[in-house]
Specification:
seven-stranded mixed sheet; 14 helices; two-stranded antiparallel ribbon; binds zinc ion; about 50% helix; about 10% strand; alpha/beta
Length: about 400
């Protein structure tokens, strides 16, 4: 299936090659960026899969050399980035192919940043004007190839890296971390199992929703978020129930990229809590956002009610009101087989106040429509733990 009507080249927010089979263009695109010897950065599971073998043989067919670096954990660490930089330098590479889910892409973007720096990674944490310390001339070019439809890291200007010592996730940021080229090939997602399709798709939905509700002025991002939410509503269940449905896969992939494009506008409480819980429990990021979603929306009700009403009209819910949106989210989650409470994924109340404190201090808290206190975050967490909507 070629899906010609779902094939296109876009230059916003970066150079995007959308369509079935576009991965075949990778060697040509590398050459366009002046890469002759790229380092493919992916996770250890994907490194063993036929799709990566195919990429390598395609490079060989084009008389190009490449290596693979795959020593990356889910929720990548500073150590992973450090080893990636060593692999890049030792192999005399001239560019990075970020291939995989959010973890691989975030690690790859961080490696591409760090190959040209003398300062350590945490000095580029997204705080104040830290990003101005980056020596941009030495950054390696990146082509991003997502194999999941969720994080949208392929169009993000930041990467989430876990600080193992401090037990928290830090955001590394520079505007030039936005990959130069993105290949969105829905065929790369067809083997993704149903539970991951659902969880990553709900991450994309949480990006679009939080961006849509964020208080800052950015109508363009708001428009993109709206259409992303509609695409997920109409396609995520289809892609989850039948992974081979390429059309649904294509729409989910674009929706995910759109969600991340929109969240330049800001994220909010779902992500503030999901980052904190992810650092403490190492649970799946998308799954955490999916579970937290209705509880955080409910807590924000007073600020977002009108906006959500407009959204319900756009996505075609029967009753255009806030409550019907919450009812839809809960039903949608259920159809996707996502738990209703955090306790179902073995999270406990043990660290409740620490979680409230961590969420309060997370950079995403700033994008939430209401500036919640530590106690309020703890309260939302407890509601999500016990299923109290
Ligand atoms: Zn996310």
């Amino acid at each position: 299936m070629k899906l010609d009507h779902l094939t296109a080249d876009w230059n916003y927010p970066t150079n995007i090659k959308q369509g079935v089979g576009r991965i075949g263009e990778l060697p040509k695109l590398c050459k366009n960026l002046g890469m002759k010897n790229p380092l493919i950065i992916t996770d250890p599971f994907l490194a063993q899969q036929p799709m990566v073998a195919k990429v390598i043989s395609n490079f060989r067919d084009h008389d190009m050399h490449c290596d693979i670096f795959s020593n990356i954990v889910g929720n990548p660490t500073a150590q992973n980035v450090k080893e990636g930089v060593t692999a890049f330098t030792n192999g005399n590479h001239d560019g990075v192919i970020a291939f995989g889910g959010g973890s691989a892409i975030d690690a790859a973007k961080s490696v591409a940043l760090m190959v040209g720096q003398t300062l350590p990674l945490w000095r580029f944490e997204d705080k104040g004007d830290n990003w101005t310390r980056v020596n941009t001339s030495k950054m390696a070019p990146v082509i991003a190839v997502p194999t999941t439809s969720g994080t949208g890291s392929e169009v993000g200007r930041a990467a989430v890296i876990t600080d193992v010592e401090a037990k928290l996730k830090r955001l590394i940021f520079h505007p030039n971390m936005l990959p130069s080229i993105v290949i969105l090939d829905p065929e790369l997602t067809i083997d993704l199992p149903a539970h991951l399709t659902a969880a990553t798709g709900m991450d994309a939905l949480s990006h679009a929703l939080e961006a849509y509700c964020a208080p800052s002025y950015h109508p363009m991002a708001q428009g993109i978020a709206l259409e992303s939410i509609r695409l997920i509503k109409d396609n995520l269940l289809k892609a989850t129930l039948n992974g081979q449905n390429l059309e649904a896969r294509a729409h989910c992939m674009v929706a995910s990229t759109m969600g991340a494009t929109a969240f330049q506008r800001g994220l909010g409480g779902m992500h503030a809590l999901a980052h904190s819980l992810g650092a403490l429990y190492n649970s799946h990021h998308g799954l955490l956002n999916a579970i937290l979603m209705p509880y955080v929306l409910k807590a924000n009700r007073s600020e977002i009610e009108g906006r959500i009403r407009r959204l319900t009209r756009y996505i075609g819910l029967k009753d255009a009101c806030f409550d019907s949106f919450i009812v839809w989210i809960i039903a949608f989650r259920q159809e996707l087989n996502i738990p209703h409470t955090l306790s179902e994924i073995d999270i406990t109340a043990k660290d409740a106040s620490l979680i409230g404190q961590m969420a309060f201090n997370d950079p995403c808290a700033g994008g939430n429509p209401i500036q919640f206190s530590e106690n309020q975050y703890t309260e939302i967490f407890m509601n999500a733990l016990n299923g109290e909507i």
